[in-house]
């Protein structure tokens, strides 16, 4: 893909780069998804994060990408979007 | 900014051009006789042995000199061009250089080649780089991993359908469709009350897929939409259905190829589709009016993608714009807060009285059969139906007067609670004859294919007049 | 990071976790994506850590992950 420049069609009241989504005020009642990108050792890291979140009373769902070399398959993305409120993805190195 | 012209002679050439190569050996002789500057458009090799030879890689010099052909020979005196010739013409070159024996061995004439500055795509790039035009909108660098079309979706600029990425060259081309300056402010765009410039209009027109020649119609529509009477802010925020609909009258409609015939209210025509769409995108992107945010329409209507058509003026009925005061032969747009299309099927009426009664019965149901003086309406009469009136000598006005009579109803039937229906008009009207529409609230246009005994009602936002929206007509300028 | 960007377009806020070796690459990818996801970086190396060390890394990263999952802090 080559770079292209376009002109902003908006009133330019927001920053040019896409903004991150707003976060909820608290995690109470939220489901946090943990997506393992399947690099070695990442699962140990995420296991511990899951333990910690569970100890805080936060619901957790675990997911695995088939391989870290490709973006997640569409069905997995759709599934996660349907099942969680927030996502943590790791561990890239 | 134009660089100053060097005195003496200027030659602009391309190494790629045989005629330029033909004259190349003469340049040393010309340079000896007086100051000579050589600009080569495509190569550092051309006339490389001359100290005054420059590779005009960015084409800045060629742009400012307005070069159309190569080779071009220009004489400059006191910083000002006095004469030029292009191609090889022995007599002209001898006269301009003052060298009577120049190019003796060469043929009398050879045509030149096109200047590099005029190659497709290049001239607009040059204009953006070196011309007088100043675009003020923020440049957004689409990441190299992004598909520009997807990137526009992800930045929220789309109405749900793909938009055309607004590159500076596309915007420049769009701006050439109007004589107005890019920084001219058309008005304040609701709901955020943002000053909308001609440049922002052009960018959204590119998004929508407009052609540059649509700009005058789009600008007129935007001006009309931004008037106080049109009440655009309220229309955007309403939970009801409406959004701006554009009816185009006059020669401009034909000139830009708008559709007033078969499927006039539907899809398939670029001008109809993109002009209506551009206005919606301006509301979204410049004004900040987006569904789910300030736009809380319960249901909306498909016309919120785009709702724009031309009236069919090839009959003996006064076009809408002329009814509303625009001179014959001039083009105009009328903005109406349209809510959708409701069909009227009448394949049996052969006289105007019967057909008018059909129309009136259907018009009763605008908003609600028991409501009155709420919304305005546009009655779109197809050519076959219009013929019934025209052949009987009925003008639009005659039809309107007939409809207004037929649309009077006893208040007792309409009041809240009457007929076991809670909705209705206030009790105080129960002893009156109540008109369906406020004065001037019923507009009539003729449009559609020539086969089909069907007409249509486009209901207006049920807040008409000073509490909401009134139709606004605006002439198309340039 | 592509996945985080994609999930955000599906209305799921996300946080990426990567080793500190990834900082430069993340900045470049962010520019290429036109989107700068919330990221937490943990000290390199990763591959030859023991399980206990990995758990310690997780404990160390937890506070920042939680911070980026909730509003209240401008970022």
Automatic annotation (TrEMBL), chain C:
UGSC-like domain: residues covered: 1-70
- A Pfam family name for this chain? UGSC
Please indicate which superkingdom the organism of origin belongs to.
Bacteria
Q: Please give the name of this protein.
A: UGSC-like domain-containing protein
């Amino acid at each position: 893909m080559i770079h292209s420049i376009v002109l902003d069609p908006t009133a330019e009241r927001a920053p040019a780069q896409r903004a991150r989504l707003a976060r909820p005020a608290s995690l109470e009642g939220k489901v946090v998804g943990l997506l393992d990108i399947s690099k070695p050792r990442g699962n140990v890291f995420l296991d511990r994060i899951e333990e910690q979140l569970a100890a805080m009373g936060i619901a957790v769902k675990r997911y695995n990408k088939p391989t870290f070399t490709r973006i997640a398959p569409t069905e997995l993305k759709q599934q996660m979007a349907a099942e969680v409120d927030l996502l943590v993805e790791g561990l890239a190195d | 900014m134009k660089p100053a012209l060097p005195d003496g002679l200027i030659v602009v050439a391309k190494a790629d051009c045989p005629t330029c190569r033909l004259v190349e050996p003469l340049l040393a002789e010309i340079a000896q006789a007086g100051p000579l500057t050589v600009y080569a458009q495509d190569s550092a090799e051309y006339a490389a042995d001359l100290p005054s030879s420059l590779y005009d890689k960015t084409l800045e010099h060629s742009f400012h000199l307005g070069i159309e052909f190569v080779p071009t020979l220009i004489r400059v005196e006191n910083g000002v061009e006095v004469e030029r010739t292009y191609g090889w013409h022995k007599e002209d070159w001898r006269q301009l250089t003052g060298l009577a024996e120049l190019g003796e061995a060469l043929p009398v004439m050879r045509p030149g080649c096109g200047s590099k500055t005029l190659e497709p795509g290049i001239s607009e790039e040059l204009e953006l780089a070196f011309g007088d035009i100043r675009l003020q909108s923020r440049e957004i660098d689409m990441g190299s991993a992004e598909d520009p079309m997807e990137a526009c979706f992800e930045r929220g600029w789309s109405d749900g359908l793909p938009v055309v990425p607004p590159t500076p060259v596309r915007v420049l081309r769009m701006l050439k469709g109007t004589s107005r300056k890019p920084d001219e402010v058309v008005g304040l765009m609701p709901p955020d009350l943002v000053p909308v410039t001609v440049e922002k209009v052009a960018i959204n027109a590119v998004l929508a897929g407009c052609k540059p020649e649509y700009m005058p119609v789009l600008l007129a529509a935007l001006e009309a939409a931004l008037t106080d009477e049109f009440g655009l802010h309220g229309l955007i925020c309403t939970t009801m259905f409406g959004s701006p609909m554009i009816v185009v009258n006059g020669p401009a409609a034909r000139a830009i190829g708008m559709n007033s015939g078969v499927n006039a209210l539907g899809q398939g025509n670029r001008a109809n589709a993109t002009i209506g769409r551009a206005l919606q995108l301006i509301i979204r992107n410049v004004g900040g009016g987006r569904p789910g945010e300030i736009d809380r329409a319960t249901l909306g209507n498909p016309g919120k993608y785009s709702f724009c058509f031309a009236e069919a003026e090839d009959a003996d009925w006064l076009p809408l714009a002329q009814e509303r005061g625009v001179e014959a032969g001039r083009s105009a747009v009328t903005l109406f807060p349209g809510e959708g299309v409701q069909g009227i099927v009448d394949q049996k009426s052969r006289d105007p009285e019967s057909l008018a009664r059909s129309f009136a019965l259907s018009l009763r149901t605008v908003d609600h059969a028991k409501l009155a003086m709420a919304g305005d309406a546009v009655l779109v009469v197809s050519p076959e139906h219009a013929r019934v009136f025209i052949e009987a000598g009925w003008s639009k006005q005659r039809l309107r007067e007939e409809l207004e009579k037929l649309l009077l109803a006893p208040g007792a039937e309409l009041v809240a609670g009457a007929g076991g229906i809670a909705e209705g008009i206030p009790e105080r009207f129960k002893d009156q004859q109540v008109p369906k529409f406020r004065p001037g609230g019923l507009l009539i246009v003729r449009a559609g294919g020539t086969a089909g005994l069907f007409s249509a009602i486009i209901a207006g936002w049920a807040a008409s007049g000073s509490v909401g929206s009134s139709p606004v007509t605006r002439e198309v300028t340039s | 990071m592509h996945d985080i960007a994609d999930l955000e377009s599906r209305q799921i806020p996300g946080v990426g976790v990567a080793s500190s070796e990834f900082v430069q690459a993340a900045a470049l990818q962010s520019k290429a994506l036109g989107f700068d996801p919330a990221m937490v970086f943990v000290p390199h190396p990763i591959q030859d850590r023991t399980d206990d060390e990995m758990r310690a890394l997780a404990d160390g990263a937890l506070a920042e992950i939680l911070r980026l999952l909730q509003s209240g802090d401008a970022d």
